[in-house]
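FAQ: What does a ligand-bound record look like?

Like this one, built around Z5A:
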Amino acid sequence: MSGRLIVFEGVEGGGKTTQLERSRQWLIDSGWLAFLQSNGWVQQLVVTREPGGTNLGQGLRQLLLHATQEPIQDRAELLLYAADRAQHVEGVLRPQLTQKNLILCDRYTDSTIAYQGYGRGLDQVLIEQLNQIATNGLQSDLTLWLDLDVKIGLARTHQRGKADRIEQADLNFHERVQQGFTALAQAHPHRIARINATQPEAAVFQEIQTTLSDRLTEWYGKKE
Ligand code: Z5A
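The answer part, i.e. the structure of the complex:
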């Protein structure tokens, strides 16, 4: 049995980073990680993200989120995210899964469909093909979609200071991104679990914990 890939997705300010860290800590504190390790099903817990999960990706992330010299064209943006993903899949995700590691990843393929497809309006078939090329078919085993009104998410990120290039896009853009995540969750009800991210942090995590427990039990059996 190889490892598993768990992805956190959603609009800006949805709490992905916060909840990913809580999930990492809970997997350790709850004894799940030790249980999986003692049975030889999982070796390590790994945390990563897109864009920026590799050295090359860190450079691409800087360009994608903070480039100011000239506007990045929509198709160039799409290709940069694809390049980041191809490097990440072959350099990090596949090797870690082969080593039976459990991966928590901040964003993956659904972000491209939501942001570049629904948000920028690029051709969905083209994006599906590019995702296929970049991942060579590697899908998440579970995606936790932190569903939140975009206005609330943007208000949270504005509170913390200077907005990056994508956060500065207009509200309509972010509304379309949200429609993208909604459509994806409807199309993939087992792979994508909707989490109500409007609640206080602890309540959001309670939902995530329940979803993670259920899915780990489905994959590995009941924790002893
Ligand atoms: N992107 C793309 O376009 N295409 C792609 O294929 C991929 C990505 C892979 C990456 O940014 C950008 O790239 C992203 C999409 C695009 N667009 N932007 N901008 P990122 O993933 O690094 O950053 P982000 O999505 O903007 O993350 P974020 O703004 O840091 O949000 P977050 O990680 O979901 O939330 P957070 O940092 O955990 O929380 C945000 C704030 O809210 C923080 O102050 C928390 O303390 C607070 N918070 C969190 N939870 C709560 C609750 N429940 N209540 C109240 N306040 C809360």
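Follow-up question: can I read anything off the structure? Yes, for example: The chain has one domain: 4-220.
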